[in-house]
Design the sequence.
């Protein structure tokens, strides 16, 4: 992105928020734009996962528009400028990558990530704990991945994948025991424990559970839509077919 492109977008925002600009845009603040940032980020992620390059281009622009919009509001109130945020990000990345921008040496990725966490904590003032930087609003599955990742960087993790698998089996057994008890609170707790451990096993294998589940969700939705199409060709309504008939369609679309 050229400087001219950024300035062009900043000028658009300035026009939208000027006294004679758009009534809606003039009322927006960093706080009111929070939901929009989240929504546009999700749309960008969806476009990337779908490998839709044109959609990625558009959604990147939408996200950048919101970032510049928010930065302008802070600049108007005298807090900071967009350039300050960019400079801060550059300085932070240089500081956190001494193995690239300085003479630090790392043996492997695990050591690299441990160093990253140490540097992050050293940047914070006061007595900061390891999980203080964990965003509270993260979706639960993504949060579980980040928790396991941060714990591992601090050395608190299973010594081997086999131990993690054993723990997963133990959690499965506890889940089944809870089911037999009929205690809803225990059932919910054990399901959470099982999922948490499963997410950690995926992390150890280089798989992000959130992304993996999203792929499965989309696969299911695609197959179900094809089932509906097949049922329609047969002159039937899928919701009125019995499970055996539905399963037959499912096998066809697989």
Sequence:
């Amino acid at each position: 992105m050229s400087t001219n492109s950024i300035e062009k977008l900043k000028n658009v925002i300035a026009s939208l928020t000027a006294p004679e600009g758009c009534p809606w845009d003039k009322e927006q603040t960093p706080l009111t734009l929070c939901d929009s940032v989240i929504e546009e980020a999700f749309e960008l992620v969806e476009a990337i996962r779908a490998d839709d390059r044109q959609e990625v281009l558009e959604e990147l622009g939408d996200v950048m528009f919101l970032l510049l919009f928010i930065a302008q509001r802070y600049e108007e109130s005298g807090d900071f400028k967009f350039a300050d945020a960019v400079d801060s990000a550059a300085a932070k990345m240089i500081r956190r990558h001494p193995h690239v921008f300085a003479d630090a040496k790392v043996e492997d990725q695990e050591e690299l990530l441990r160093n990253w966490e140490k540097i992050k904590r050293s940047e914070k003032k006061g007595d900061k704990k390891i999980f203080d930087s964990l965003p509270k609003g993260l979706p639960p599955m993504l949060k579980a991945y980040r928790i396991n990742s941060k714990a591992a960087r601090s050395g608190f993790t299973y010594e081997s994948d086999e131990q993690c698998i054993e723990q997963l089996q133990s959690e499965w057994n506890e889940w089944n025991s809870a089911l037999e008890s009929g205690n809803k609170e225990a059932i919910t707790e054990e399901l959470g424990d099982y999922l948490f451990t499963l997410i950690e096993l995926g992390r150890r294998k280089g798989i992000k559970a959130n992304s993996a589940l999203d792929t499965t969700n989309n696969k299911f939705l695609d197959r179900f839509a094809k089932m509906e199409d097949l049922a329609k060709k047969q002159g039937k309504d899928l919701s009125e077919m019995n499970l055996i008939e539905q399963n037959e369609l499912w096998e066809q679309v697989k």
Observations:
- The mean pLDDT is 91.
- Residues 209-233 form the longest helix (25 residues).
- The chain has twelve helices and no strands.
- The CA atoms of residues 172 and 194 lie 6 Å apart.
